[in-house]
Amino acid sequence: MTTITTRTVEYPADGLTMIGYLALPAGVDRRPAVLLGPEGMGLSDVERLRADVLAELGYVALAFDLHGGRYLGDPEEMLARCMPLLADPDRMRGIGHAALDVLRTEPRTDLDRIAAIGYGTGGAVGLELGRDGVSLRAIGTVNATTTGRPGEAARIHCPVWAGVGSEDPIMPPAQRNAFTAEMQAAGVDWRLTVYGGALHAFHHPPVDHPTVPGVGYHPQHAQRAWRDVVDLLAECLPVTEELGT
């Protein structure tokens, strides 16, 4: 297994001190980089492990924070923070830009090769960075078929892939259709994968606290969605050089 280096990083955003998780591949050269956003509950070991895997694949990976170092396991508390956030594109962009600045400051990051991957609220943040005109190589989301302000999707200049469960009541067919209509009208290179029988957050292993209705883990589709993410990165953000030793 490739040796990677990890560390936490603190940075200000949304009036909070965020605590992100940075994973670096072996070597000293610049590498393509991935901004990794968590579900609405916030940064957890699930995203840290994904960042580790991305680093093992050769990417600089920053799993960013949403809640100032907190994980919101209480559904009511999570919704009380996330719903106003999801309704405010400028706040989401502020959180995304702050994390992106950290990633860009990392000496190992190839500034011309950055992608945003996100789940739920973290995926919505990635989409808002695209709608804000940020130069990205790809945007990938799961459970985040969110729409933006009219006309702003035209600022997205990279491929967008979205994955969603067919039985997701939080991102139902009407929401999926609105998202794809927005992407199509803007001329975005978009793809949507619908995972049959899957609920919201189907990619996330079971948790030991209550969740909002409509959430459920689907192990097979979770693996498929991760492969789809890795395939998106391989297509749009390939690691073309041999890893250092």
UniProtKB/TrEMBL annotation:
Domain of life of the source: Bacteria
UniProt KW keywords: Hydrolase
GO molecular function, one term: hydrolase activity
InterPro entries reported for this sequence: AB_hydrolase_fold (IPR029058), Dienelactn_hydro (IPR002925), FrsA_esterase (IPR050261)
Location of the Dienelactone hydrolase domain: 20-235
Protein's UniProt keywords contain Iron: no
Family according to the record: Belongs to the AB hydrolase superfamily.
PANTHER family in UniProt: DIENELACTONE HYDROLASE DOMAIN-CONTAINING PROTEIN, DIENELACTONE HYDROLASE DOMAIN-CONTAINING PROTEIN-RELATED
The protein's name in its UniProt record: Dienelactone hydrolase family protein
